[in-house]
Amino acid sequence: MNRLSTRHWGIRAFAPVALALALVVAPVASGIALAQDAEAPAAEAPADEAPVMTDPAATAEPAAPMEAAPIEDTGMAEVENPYGLKALWEQGDLISKGTLIILVIMSMGTWYIMFTKVWDQAKLFSQAKQVDRDFWKAPSLQEGLDKLDRGNQFRSLIEKGLGAAQHHEGRLTDQIDAPEWIANNLQRESEAIQMRLQGGLAFLATVGSTAPFVGLFGTVWGIYHALIAIGVAGQASIDKVAGPVGEALIMTAIGLAVAVPAVLAYNWLVRRNKAATEIVRNFVIDYGSYLVQSRSATARSH
Known about the structure:
Elements: H1 2-54, H2 56-60, H3 63-77, H4 85-91, H5 94-135, H6 141-147, H7 153-166, H8 178-198, H9 201-233, H10 238-301
Helix pairs in contact: 5-9, 5-10, 7-8, 7-10, 8-10, 9-10
C-alpha cells in the first residue's frame, strides 16, 4: 500500500508539470510548423521564376526573328530583272546593240524635229499676225516694212517683191512682163519659206515606215538566239529561252514606240504646214497685186 501510495503521489505531483510543458511546447511546435509551411512556397517561388528572369537563352530567343527580318527585306530589294533593258544591253551581241542604237537615234530625231517644227510654225503664225496688224495698216510701203522685225519671214517676201518691181529695167529680164516678173520672184521666195517648213518631215515619214521593221529585225534575231539555246541545251526549258525571247519582245516594243510618235507627228505637222502655206500664198497674191497696181499708177503718173 505504501508503495502504491507513493506511486500515485508521484503521478499527481508531475501531472501539473507535464500539463504546463504541453501547453508551452504545443504553441511553439505549431508556430514552427506554420513558419516552415509559409517559407516553403516562398523558397519554391524564386526557383520556379528564376529560369524566366535570369536564363540568357530565354532572353536571346525572341531577338533572333527580329534580326532575321531586315536580312530578308534587303535580299528582296536587291533582286533585279534578269530580262530587262540592262540585261539586253549587257548580254546582247553586236547586232542587238546596233539595232537598239538605231532605234534610239530614230526616236531622238523624231522628238527633235517635232519640237523644232512646231516652234517654226508657231513663229510663222505669229509673224502673220504682225503683218496684218502693222504692215497692211501702214500709210506707205516703206513705213510698213520698217515696222516688221528683222527676223520676220514676210519681210523677206516684201523686200524681194520690192526689188523685183524697182529693178526690172535694164536687164535681160526686160523681155518678161513686169507683173509676171514680180509674181515669179514672190513665188520663188514663198517656195523657199515652204521648203523650210517642210524640212525634217521626210525623216518623220521614214521613221514611221521603217521603225517597226527595224524592231522586227531585232525580234527575229532574238528568236534566232532562242533556237540556238534550245539546240545547245537539247531541251526547250524556260530558263534557256526566256532571255532571247525577252530580248525579241523588247525590240518589238521599242520599234512600235519609235514608229507611232513619228507617224502621228508627221500627220499633225503636215496639216499645220498646209495652214501656214495658205497664209503665205494669200499674202503673196495680195502683195503681188499691190506692187503691180502701184507700178502701173507710177507709170501713168510719169
